[in-house]
Design goal:
Elements: E1 2-6, E2 22-23, E3 26-27, H1 28-38, E4 43-48, E5 61-64, H2 70-80, E6 86-91, H3 101-111, E7 116-121, E8 124-132, H4 136-140, H5 147-153, E9 158-163, H6 175-186, H7 192-197, H8 212-222, E10 234-239, H9 242-251, H10 256-260, E11 263-270, H11 272-280, H12 290-313, E12 317-321, H13 328-334, E13 341-350, H14 378-400, H15 414-422, H16 434-440
Parallel strand pairs: 1-4, 1-6, 4-5, 7-9
Antiparallel strand pairs: 2-3, 6-8, 7-8, 10-11, 11-13, 12-13
Helix pairs in contact: 8-12
The structure holds flavin mononucleotide.
């Protein structure tokens, strides 16, 4: 097995040479070469363009090729490698795609009867790919315009290598891709429960956006959440346009983090698809039912939590936005939601630039009951919740200079805050006309 790493691009959109960009302590090209050498690949060839900066010392041979089309780089690599059975083509853009994959690719190729092996993550094909030596002639043929031509020519000779590394689908193209790759490399590899316990809502963000491919991966993963009767009554509208985010922020109580986050996700309870399904079978959706509405909202909530958790697992951070229900009809219009779809909550998402004091939670005993609900122990737990909230306020004032730009009242515990928020004596804020708005959006909320 030989490997050809194509590294001929200038990295114009990234603003730097991809091969030399740092991921952790090492450059991308060093990382890739090491992965292939560690997997037992005997000869690794890196193809550069004329005039490209010198690479650090590598356990690989470096060749220069012009013009720097991908296929030309592969041809130059083929000319450089000696006798071989298979050759892997790995564009340097797929900086993390060799992790766990190089090793599996080498072992898989040793066993397969196929002629082309393409790495595949949950059914989607990406990079790298490996080809049998006999296919070199097709690659070298002047009528072949791209490697894709060779792969597509005869599907019978291609097989997918299933891997779980999402980076086989994600290239490093823009600065935000590099931010994502670095966050991925630096993230702690930890059990999901530990990730959950590290959760904090994040409200300040770096300027780089969330790469499209990353957002797609996150939502694609989140949609495997459990769903009532397979309804999948959720949808999400991702808003990146600054002008639209600004209008959304205005509708969401003017929250600064909604305005500043590079992405706003409108997580929707969506019965429109059920309506379409009914229409196909001469039925009418029962969208007037309170229970169906609740099912859609529960589906959306579980889906949204999955999004947040998947995002946090990649080093992103965000804040759910209940204020997205302050003006549901106006928000629905802005997002062009069809009937029977409402934004259940929003999410401001991006690369965190804050370091908030974790808010902790009330004692477990107030949440986990054994066989029957034990109301007797709640008084002590509520005292503890009060103390926890005051401690959080003190630490937030001391270390962050307050919360959202304002000093937090250190006297107020959890119970007094809840009473101020939810006590019937306090005039209802903002959402008094929610029922009317929901009915306008096509949810009858009927209980009979
Ligand atoms: C459905 C939902 C709606 C929320 N709405 C808002 C909001 O509009 N603005 C905001 O700043 N935080 C909002 N939050 C975040 C909560 O304030 C936050 O989760 C809570 O204070 C606990 O803090 P933590 O998430 O950092 O642990 C919301 C959270 C949830 C789950």
């Amino acid at each position: 097995m030989r490997a050809i790493i194509t590294a001929g691009g200038v990295g114009a959109r990234l603003g730097e040479d991809k091969a030399l960009a740092l991921l952790g302590e090492r450059t991308i090209v060093e990382r890739l070469v090491e992965r292939y050498r560690a997997a037992g690949v005997e000869d690794v060839v890196v193809v550069r363009r004329t005039g490209a900066a010198e690479l650090p010392p590598l356990d690989a041979r470096v060749f220069v090729c012009d013009p720097p089309e991908m296929i030309d780089s592969v041809r130059a690599g083929l000319a450089a490698i000696g006798e071989h059975d298979w050759f892997v083509v790995h564009p340097v853009d797929y900086a993390l795609a060799a992790d766990d994959v190089a090793d599996r690719l080498v072992r898989f190729c040793a066993d397969t009867a196929a002629e082309i092996v393409v790495s595949e993550c949950f059914g989607r094909r990406g990079h790298p790919l490996a080809l049998r030596a006999e296919l070199a002639a097709e690659v070298l043929d002047a009528t072949t315009e791209s490697l894709r031509d060779v792969v597509r020519r005869d599907p019978e000779r291609v097989v997918g290598l299933p891997v779980t590394n999402p980076w086989i689908l994600r290239d490093i193209d823009e600065p935000c891709d590099l931010v994502a790759a670095r966050a991925f490399v630096e993230r702690p590899v930890e059990p999901v429960a530990s990730l959950m316990r590290r959760h904090r809502s994040r409200r300040r963000f770096r300027p780089e956006t969330v790469p499209d491919a990353q957002l797609e991966w996150i939502v694609d993963s989140a949609r495997y959440a459990a769903t009532s009767s397979m309804m999948q009554a959720y949808a999400v509208v991702a808003v990146r346009d600054a002008g639209r985010r600004d209008r959304i922020a205005t509708l969401c109580a003017d929250q600064r983090h909604v305005r500043e986050a590079p992405v706003f996700l409108a997580v929707c309870a969506d019965l429109h698809k059920i309506e379409l399904a009914c229409a196909r079978h001469a039925a009418t959706i029962h969208a007037d039912s309170l229970d169906v509405f609740l099912q859609a909202v529960i589906d959306a909530a579980i889906f949204g939590q999955n999004i947040q958790l998947a995002a946090e697992s990649e080093g992103l951070g965000g804040c759910m936005i209940g204020a997205a229900r302050n003006h549901p009809v106006e928000l629905a219009e802005l997002l062009e939601l069809p009937a029977h779809v409402v934004v259940a909550f929003g999410m401001a998402l991006g690369w965190p630039a804050d370091d908030p004091v974790p808010r902790g939670r009330m004692p477990l005993g107030a949440v986990l009951h054994d066989e029957r609900y034990d109301a007797d122990r709640l008084a002590a737990d509520l005292d503890a919740a009060d103390a926890g909230m005051r401690a959080w306020a003190r630490e937030t004032n001391a270390t962050q200079g307050g919360y959202g730009g304002r000093e937090v009242n250190e006297e107020r515990g959890w119970t007094d805050r809840m009473a101020r928020l939810w006590g019937a004596e306090v005039p209802e804020k903002g959402r008094a006309d929610l029922v009317a708005a929901l009915r306008q959006l096509g949810f009858g909320l009927r209980t009979d």
